[in-house]
């Protein structure tokens, strides 16, 4: 049973759309994951941060202007991500492109999508994969007269 849930999740990812999940609306994400299990605290420029449970995984999604800018994925059992799980999660967000592993001076693994518009970071403990829009360093549209960023820096 312990291995069945990740296998089912990987099967679901393999059969999912090729489009990036970053950039999707809350409605699109809820169609995939179901309703959120919790609303989380957040800081600007994030406008909403929701937690979902799907196939043995917990997904924290951050939104700006109803678009997903960050997805942080943890295993429900707090276990390590296997290489097959990492590959499947990256594939689900490749938007028809591919990911390249980047050299890093720390113990985390970092990946950049070949279009440069998304980054992924696997923490040093191999327990959390965070995918984020790479446009975080430049302010984009304005909300209530204040510039917002498409994602948070540092991911």
What is the topology?
Layout: H1 4-14, H2 26-33, E1 38-39, E2 48-54, E3 57-64, E4 67-75, H3 83-92, E5 99-102, E6 109-113, E7 118-122, E8 128-133, E9 139-143, E10 146-149
Antiparallel strand pairs: 1-2, 2-3, 3-4, 4-8, 5-6, 6-7, 7-8, 9-10
**How is the main sheet built?**
8 strands, antiparallel
**How many structural domains?**
1
Low-confidence stretches: 1-20, 136-155
How far from one another are the termini? Answer: 33 Å
Shape: globular
**Strand pairing plus helix content: what structural class?**
alpha+beta
Strand line-up in the sheet with most strands: 1-2-3-4-8-7-6-5
Structural write-up:
- This protein is α+β, with helices and mostly antiparallel strands.
- The chain has one domain.
- It has helices spanning 4-14, 26-33, 83-92, and strands at 38-39, 48-54, 57-64, 67-75, 99-102, 109-113, 118-122, 128-133, 139-143, 146-149.
- The radius of gyration is 15 Å and the shape is globular.
């Amino acid at each position: 049973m312990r291995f069945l849930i990740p296998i089912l999740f990987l099967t679901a990812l393999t059969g999912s759309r090729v489009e990036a999940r970053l950039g999707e609306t809350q409605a699109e994400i809820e169609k995939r994951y179901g309703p959120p299990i919790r609303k989380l605290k957040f800081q600007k420029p994030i406008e909403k941060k929701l937690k979902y449970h799907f196939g043995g995984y917990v997904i924290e999604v951050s939104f700006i202007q109803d678009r997903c800018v960050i997805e942080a994925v943890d295993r429900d059992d707090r276990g390590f991500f296997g290489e097959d799980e990492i590959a499947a999660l990256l594939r689900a967000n490749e938007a028809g492109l591919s990911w390249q592993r980047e050299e890093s001076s720390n113990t985390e693994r970092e990946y950049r999508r070949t279009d440069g518009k998304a980054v992924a970071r696997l923490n040093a403990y191999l327990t959390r994969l965070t995918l984020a829009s790479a446009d975080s360093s430049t302010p984009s549209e304005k909300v209530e007269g204040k510039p917002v960023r498409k994602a948070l820096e540092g991911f």
